[in-house]
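pinging the channel bc i need a second pair of eyes. not urgent but kinda urgent?? the chain im working w is below, pasted from the shared doc
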Amino acid sequence: MREVSTHEFASARADGAFTIDVREPGEYVSGHVPGVRLMPMGEVPSRQAELPRNRPVYVVCQSGNRSRTIADLLVRQGFDARSVAGGTSGWESLGYPVVRGPVADVA
């Protein structure tokens, strides 16, 4: 598993990176990275078919702990998974935008 910095993640996002947020729905609604898909940690094993195998999958949570766990799981399953260090908290603290509410694709 590879861990990436918030700035590396921002660059990848600008290039259209595939990203999942593994927090619970209530956490996601309270503030998430624009365009990131919600896939709660407990659902990832049963929803792997929704993830691309031909490009990196960036995994974000609140602080980086859950995303590391899920990225490790995905790597063991053959994905090129990358955990975002600092998670959504780090993203927001550096001034990047967050979306509040259930919609993923709002910039």
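so Helices lie at 6-14, 25-30, 65-76, 87-93. and The chain has a mean pLDDT of 94. — does that match what u expected or am i reading it wrong
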